[in-house]
Design brief:
The chain is mainly alpha-helical. The chain is 45% helix and 6% strand. α3 packs across α12 and α14 (298-308) packs antiparallel against α15. The protein is globular and about 75 Å long. It binds zinc ion (ZN).
């Protein structure tokens, strides 16, 4: 079959919520060219400064000026650097750790406190969380499901409890990776944004009650705080990427100078870069599940950003994607076997149940064909 690809980047038409204009340019590229041309960044910066001047403590007052949700990733370190060093604020950081934290991720979280800020490290109920990881994998084909939720809800609980109205998020993923216009233009991250655009795949926390006997009470941190609480604190969450031009590679150089570590021995599984998604050992499985559903993986995401920022030509990107995208994630699967207690066969069967039969070749018995390296045989070619 032939998949239609964006004429500028290499996003495929199979990507959910992606739209093409008459020239065959995708909505993510259109949003990016807006970033380069029509957005008045000086005005946005001034809007941002108005916001923080409104929210930060008065001189002489003690307390936290804003809250930053953090993980062991690059963006967190950049957000902390930006608010602390560029704007001189005293942020409270809240870490909701990933499912299976890597050593690099752990060091990067430790490093954040060394940058001169307080970090609350939320050690979650392992049993409840693990049940949701396995259920998310089986039900919606995403073992990161409870993580997508917890990174949005847990920091907000602390913002409410500490009475910190301003929450600083990093990039707007919808802006960088393409999404409905409404989600791109939205500068606020609130409950509605999380539910619609937070990658929850239509599954709600209420739907997890009863899984392995989980009670609502045990799932407390995953329920978004009540509207009443949000209003009392006057909580507002903003994306830095809405106010400042977001360039991951330029930020990388800055955070490396502030102690951020990357994967020195080669790229992260599933892509060609060594600085994204390095805090989670099983990230390769998450990306692979996207690949079997839609025919593109994390390398495509990264290559598209590099094309838009003029760091790769379209042809170079095509070659990289052929080399890295959609390879069976052996390392992540081994880690997931240990974490879940499931066998490789069980895991593979579930992955197959999410694999798109139009995109991948099956044999006469309806089993997906694999090459010698265990990779799916594609029914399409990127061009
Ligand atoms: Zn595009």
């Amino acid at each position: 079959m032939t998949i239609r690809y964006c004429t500028k980047c290499i996003f495929p038409e199979t990507k959910p919520d992606l739209f093409f204009n008459e020239a065959g340019v995708c909505s993510a590229c259109q949003a990016a060219s807006q970033k380069n041309v029509s957005i008045d960044w000086a005005q946005r910066k001034s809007d941002f400064e108005k916001i923080i001047n409104h929210y930060k403590n008065k001189p002489g007052e003690i307390g936290y000026d804003c809250l930053i949700p953090v993980s062991g990733g690059k963006d967190s370190t950049y957000q902390v650097y930006f608010m602390k060093e560029v704007y001189g604020l005293n942020p409270l950081c809240v870490c909701f750790e990933t499912t299976n934290l890597s050593e690099i991720g752990k060091n990067n979280i430790d490093n954040i406190s060394k940058m001169g800020v307080d970090v609350i490290y939320f050690k979650k109920n392992y049993k409840a969380y693990r049940s949701m990881v396995i259920e998310g994998f089986k039900r919606v084909g995403d073992e990161m499901w409870p993580n997508h939720l917890g990174i949005f809800t847990v920091p907000i609980h602390f913002a409410v409890k500490f009475n910190i109205p301003l929450v600083i998020w990093g990039e707007n993923p919808q802006q960088e990776y393409g999404g409905p216009l409404e989600s791109v233009q939205n500068k606020h991250l609130n409950r509605r944004w999380m539910e619609e655009f937070g990658g929850l795949l239509g599954n709600r926390i209420q739907d997890m009650v009863g899984v392995d006997g989980l009670t609502e009470k045990e799932l407390t941190p995953y329920f978004y705080p009540s509207d009443e609480d949000i209003e009392r604190v006057g909580l507002t969450g903003i994306f830095l990427g809405h106010y400042f031009f977001w360039d991951a590679r330029a930020q990388l150089e800055i955070v490396k100078n502030h102690g951020f570590g990357v994967k020195e021995d080669g790229p992260v599984e599933g892509t060609y870069t060594n600085y994204e998604n390095l805090d989670e050992k099983m990230h390769g499985l998450h990306d692979y599940l996207k690949f079997v559903k839609y025919g593109f993986g994390r390398a495509t995401d990264h290559a598209c950003i590099d094309i838009r920022n003029n760091r790769l030509t379209r042809q170079e990107a095509v070659e990289l994607v052929k080399q890295y995208d959609g390879k069976y994630p052996h390392y992540a699967i081994q880690e997931f076997i240990k974490y879940s207690g499931m066998s490789k066969q069980e895991i593979d069967l579930i992955i197959d149940s999410f694999t798109n039969p139009v995109l991948f070749v099956q044999d006469e018995n309806g089993n997906f064909k694999r090459d010698n390296a265990g990779n799916l045989v594609k029914n399409f070619e990127i061009s």
